[in-house]
Write a structure and sequence with these properties.
Pfam families: HMA (PF00403)
Number of helices: 2
Protein name: Cation transporter
Number of strands: 4
InterPro entries: HMA_dom (IPR006121), HMA_dom_sf (IPR036163)
Largest sheet: 4 strands, antiparallel
Strand content: 25-35%
Shape: globular
Mean pLDDT: 97
Low-confidence stretches: none
Structural class: alpha+beta
Radius of gyration: 11 Å
Strand order of the largest sheet: 2-3-1-4
GO molecular function, one term: metal ion binding
Order of helices and strands: EHEEHE
């Protein structure tokens, strides 16, 4: 399952950090961040609950970039 989320981030480097943090999150098969569009596209592993996984993604992204936001 793939979903798209609106994000808020200050710079392209921060967006890259968010993408890397999201990709390392358990339950995420693939994640890409488009800084220009302020979007994060997430593909979830089979059988994972997107809401639960995205809470973990948000927490991991906040660790590397504390002023970022993902609108769930």
């Amino acid at each position: 399952m793939k979903k798209s989320y609106k994000i808020e981030v200050d710079c392209a480097n921060c967006a890259n950090k968010m993408e890397q943090a999201a990709q390392k999150t358990e339950g995420v098969k693939n994640a890409t961040v488009n800084f220009m569009m302020l979007k994060m596209n997430v593909e979830f592993e089979e059988g994972q609950d997107p809401k639960t996984v995205m809470q973990a993604v948000r927490a991991n992204c906040k660790k590397v970039e504390d002023d970022c936001e993902i609108y769930l």
